[in-house]
Specification:
The protein is mostly helical. It is built from 24 helices and seven strands. It has two domains: 366 residues, Glycosyltransferase, CATH 1.50.10; 272 residues, Glycosyltransferase. Helix 5 packs antiparallel against helix 6 and helix 22 packs antiparallel against helix 23.
Amino acid sequence: MDERTNIAQQVAEPWEAERPASDDALDVAIAEAVDGLAERQYDDGHWSFELEADATIPAEYILLNHYLDQIDDAVEAKLAAYLRATQGKHGGWPLYHDGDFNMSASVKAYYALKLTGEDIGAPHMTWARSAIRNHGGPARCNVFTRIALALFGQLPWRAVPVTRAEVMLAPKWFPFHIDKVSYWSRTVMVPLTVLTVLKPKARNPRGIGIEELFVRPPDEEERYLTNPTGTWVGEAMLVLDHIGRATERLWPRFLERKAIDKAMAWVKERLNGEDGLGGIFPAMANTLMAFDALGYAHDDPDFVTARKAVDKLLVVNGDMGYCQPCLSPVWDTSLAAHALMEADLPVDRPNLAAACAWLVGRQVLDVKGDWEANRGHVRPGGWAFQYRNDHYPDVDDTAVVAMALHRAGNGDYREAIERATEWILGMQSRSGGWGAFDADNEHDFLQNIPFADHGALLDPPTADVSARCLSMLAQLGFERRHPAVTRALDYLKGEQEENGSWFGRWGNNYVYGTWSVLSALNAVGEDMEQPFVRRAADWLRSCQRPDGGWGEDCATYWQHRRDEVKESTPSQTAWALLGLMAAGEVDSDSVRRGIDYLLAAPRENGRWSEEYFNAVGFPRIFYLRYHGYCAYFPLWALARYRNLCRGNDKFTKFGM
């Protein structure tokens, strides 16, 4: 963590001679934020902030330990403290801070607490139990939770959709093929199919169950499976599941063994060292349980490696801790670098140069990942989200990293940028948009299968990722007449909502999506006075709160709650400001009030205070809180405002 001294002074000095006294607060906030980021940078140049999810991940970590009989009472006590602290005012557990009761999160959190030795007569356990029973009990959980409960013998296996490993033997043309679902579904499902075929039972050495949560005995429950879409296709899938269950015992055992072998070979090829299968906790946990179910010793090298990957996700602070769903160093590093460059930190400063060098070293150049199924002719060249995840580079990360390296302006990065550009162009879908990890991953009929009750089986193109790719192409000099640019513009215009906003798939929500698209439109040279652009800017202004900030609740992913707000947040205010400034609104009263909100909002050591979740893994199912967002996005917005106010242009020349 070198070269931190006097950074604040260096950032402020260029404006010293011309800045009015009223701008002192702006310069101070920027300088503090720059210093704060410098303090948090690792010696090798990267940043990695905590990534927090809901109660399900730490609860699943505890369940995993008791499944394997690898109980760590000291660690689990800290996770239990976190679970108690995040219990909602309704008695259960929400999917995000100050959110509604969620059955699956609540059942897992309650079970995990009981496994750690919590007295079920304690007030918080009694409160949780009452809330769970009042909402229908564990029978109303989602599919993934019901599978976990079946593994612990708390539910019969008929509560789970038929999920067979034989799918690994299906030909490419088959309606359900593993290449047709998203990367996150693929990595979770492949080891999971081994578990649902073998139907092992958790070791659960303390013999803990949750029979007190059920409204009616599990064996008496008549209907566990539901139609995830409500369509006739979903009903037909329920019939097929019933037929599959009735004939399951007739399936040839040699095919079952062949399928399991193929599934585990697939897993081992992608084991990803101590960064774990897919870089995500659910896939890693399923891998460990599959190894165990197949009789792997706990000192087997593959088992040990997978276990280390899981344990690396733990965050422990004093007497409390939690388990992260994954790690986000590439994303954090690239965004932090953008913010620092926006703050006019010289690109040849050692800390920025180190960040760029670290990013270049993480580019995936030699592995053709699962994306090859639809784009086999394209050379690798992307970046993953995590430290290592070579089979699953991320389109969004790749675009942001390429823009950061290009902005750094060093010729040493030319080859990395060219390979990234080649990969991004190759990953464009037929619609003109980009998905996060795959191209043309739009097999919508699969959303009807009973297993898909989470609604996130696929990875179709989205406005926010597509906007980032368009921004990258524009910043690199691709002209509007280039076919990829033309198609991307057409796609984005077609995705605009009636009120002028754009949906945000990976960040909360319409503010995030609208900022992303407006930045792309500005970068590509679109006339920002066009009616469709003005509608977007008008929508952003209409969402500004009396305190000058913006805030958008995670509940907006439900259409009937799409305007819900609880309070302003620094991250969302920064996105709105960046979007309005991309639309040419730097001199507007709305932008000025937003800047005042950021300057007045509480911050410590250069990072703004933010409790509310600011991102989404799966809409309506799984939400995230990036702890770094309140460090670099407000800095970015404040620095952009200063640059535009004190420069000769009303628009930035950069893609973000």
